[in-house]
Write a structure and sequence with these properties.
Blueprint lengths: L3 H4 L2 H7 L5 H11 L6 H7 L5 H12 L13 H4 L4 H7 L1 E7 L4 E6 L5 H11 L2 E6 L2 H29 L2 H7 L7 H15 L2 E8 L3 E8 L2 E9 L3 H11 L11 E9 L2 E12 L2 E10 L14 H11 L4 E6 L6 H12 L6 E5 L10 E4 L8 H8 L6 E4 L5 H12 L3 E6 L4 H10 L4 H7 E13 L5 E4 L2 H7 L8 E4 L11 E12 L2 H8 L4 H10 L5 H10 L5 H7 L4
Parallel strand pairs: 2-3, 10-14, 10-15, 11-12, 11-13, 13-14
Antiparallel strand pairs: 1-2, 4-5, 4-9, 5-6, 7-8, 8-9, 15-18, 16-17
Helix pairs in contact: 2-5, 9-11, 11-12, 15-16, 16-18, 17-21, 18-20, 20-21, 22-23
Length: 562
């Protein structure tokens, strides 16, 4: 081990590689004082650098290899060398062993941590050669290789605990945070976050409990437990979610906040009684997940131009439409963050408030206190707002107040559950809003969906069939290549990694206003919008199929009705 590495500090490494400025370093050091945290943790928490940037800087400055653990298969004999609690404590993971030289290669989040290297050296009796990776990468690998063992151990401990006599159980109550079921629920949430899941489903069946994660919009089974653990798991979730443990016959809702890998997650919990017991669904959202940069939404340059143009309107209604889970909230929050300046007053009415944004006044609907969308809106109009965000237009009363507010000089942004831009207009008519008011107030409609992105490492090209070419509107004579999902270790063998938005943006124009006023119907509106250059969801999704971003099946899924 060269001695120079011992003397280098993370701050110096990041300064040398220009990942951070001196001011940012001093700011982070100031925040670190008395927190008991490492400098790297503070820098990531404050959003000054990402884990990836730290790993890159360490790799370059210390001249050691940067490793992606998802692409490496580690043998069982190497895994047996070090106990899992040591790996977690030191944020390290063994990769390979060179027998001839008695050297163990380990991936480390902090390769300058000499104490961790000494620990491993003593436990394994090997020389340690560090490589660098991110903390998240290490935790994912630990989940992958040790996760099931930890769960099994926890469940065995739980079974033993149930056979203990009463006195011993009382003594064990003191250490509640280390009890097997508490560990099991915590691990379940940690794993889901690391695998990019948006929801966790805990489903009772006749003899088993099935746990599924929704990743990129699709459900994947991740574990099966004995039905005996169901009640203890549900009770634990109810305790941390602030629900009534004794009530098992009624549906209940709750909220949990949990920190996973230094990020705070807000978890909405729903418990529903079913035939075999209570089913639990937990929806995970990170506090920063909903407020993305505009560039991260997946808007193409022409769509970005239209989006900006609509948001420049001083008053009117912007509607974002699509089914549940199509990214509407993210688009709205992004639009609000964009408009959030010192000289405007923004007020939202939501059910529930999904993410807290500094500088925006957010109101949570509470029917028990007679605070509905409509009553909240009436009060909000007396609060001198410039911009109003309504979580969802559900009824005539809300729609009517929203229209009035937009006509009287406010910018109103809201969501509706409709399939396309044109049908949004007719939905408002069906709610009983006069067509001339709709024409006057609506400034734009954005219909959106999310498609899964193909994994770049394993997608495979193939020629498109005649039917596919016809559906995509391609020239039948031309050779067209589409890509299929395949599956590799980087995408957990799903073939997909991440999602991207598909948009249909309809800007209001004088001609469209005339068609709406005359109530000529959704088809006439769509036809006119297409003449004015609108791209339908199918056209936008087809572009992603042709450039290899997504598969043909995903395109069909999001534009089935167009």
């Amino acid at each position: 081990m060269d001695y120079s590495r011992k003397k280098l500090r993370l701050g110096d490494v990041l300064l040398n590689s220009k990942a951070i400025s001196n001011t940012q370093l001093l700011q982070a050091l100031d925040l670190q004082k008395g927190s008991g945290k490492k400098l790297g943790e503070v820098l990531v928490e404050e959003g000054i650098v990402t884990e990836e940037q730290i790993a890159m800087a360490l790799s370059t400055q210390l001249h050691i290899e940067l490793i992606d653990l998802t692409t490496i298969a580690v043998s069982q004999e190497i895994l047996n060398l070090i106990p899992v609690n040591v790996l977690k404590k030191n944020k390290i993971f063994p990769i390979e062993y060179a027998d001839s030289m008695n050297v163990l290669r380990v991936a480390m989040a902090d390769p300058m941590d000499m104490y961790a290297q000494d620990d491993i050296s003593i436990i394994t009796n090997c020389q340690v050669e560090p490589a660098v990776t991110t903390t998240r990468n290490i935790m994912l690998a630990i989940d992958k290789y040790y996760g099931q063992d930890e769960v099994t151990t926890a469940l065995e401990a739980y079974a033993k605990e149930k056979n203990l006599n009463v006195e011993e159980v009382d003594a064990a109550e003191e250490d509640i945070n280390n009890s097997p079921i508490v560990m099991l629920v915590k691990e379940m949430i940690d794993k889901a976050v690391r695998q990019r899941a948006s929801d966790i489903h805990i489903e009772p069946m006749e003899r088993k409990v099935r746990v599924r994660y929704r990743i990129d919009g699709a459900l994947y089974e991740k574990a099966k437990y004995d039905i005996n653990v169901l009640n203890a798991m549900v009770a634990r979730i109810k305790i941390i979610g602030g629900m009534d443990i004794a009530e098992k016959r009624k549906p209940q809702d709750g909220r949990i906040t949990q920190v996973v890998d230094r990020m705070e997650y807000d978890i909405r919990v729903s418990v529903l009684p079913t035939v075999y017991g209570e089913k639990v669904v937990m929806r995970l959202t990170s506090k920063t997940g909903l407020t993305k940069e505009k560039s991260q939404l997946g808007l193409k340059p022409r769509e970005m131009e239209q989006f900006d143009y609509i948001l420049r309107n001083p008053h009117g209604i912007l509607l974002v439409t699509g089914p549940t889970g199509s990214g509407k909230s993210t688009t709205l929050y992004t639009a609000l963050s964009e408009l959030n300046r010192e000289d405007v007053n923004i007020i939202t009415v939501e059910d529930p408030v999904e993410a807290n944004i500094d500088g925006i006044n957010q109101v949570q609907v509470n029917p028990k206190a007679e605070l509905t969308f409509a009553t909240a809106l009436r009060s909000i109009l007396r609060q001198d707002p410039d911009i109003i965000m309504i979580g969802e237009i559900r009824d005539r009363e809300t729609a009517s107040i929203a229209v009035q507010a937009s006509i009287t000089g406010h910018l109103v942004v809201s969501t509706l559950h409709t399939n396309s831009s044109a049908s949004t207009i007719t939905r408002l008519e069906d709610m009983g809003i006069e067509s001339y008011l709709i024409a006057d107030s609506v400034i734009g409609v954005i219909a959106q969906r999310l498609v899964r992105r193909l994994c770049n490492d394993c997608k495979t090209p193939r020629p498109a069939t005649a039917d596919e070419k016809e559906l995509m509107g391609c020239n039948m004579e031309e050779e067209v290549t589409v890509y299929e999902p395949c599956g590799c270790s980087k995408c957990e063998n799903t073939g997909y990694k991440g999602r991207i938005g598909v948009y249909e943006i309809m800007k209001m124009s004088p001609r469209l206003k005339t068609i709406i006023s005359k109530r000529q119907g959704a088809d006439a509106i769509k036809e006119q919008a297409l003449q004015e250059g609108m791209y339908t969801l199918r056209m936008s999704a087809t572009e992603y199929v042709l450039d290899g971003t997504t598969s043909f099946d995903e395109m069909v899924k999001v534009s089935f009705d167009s």
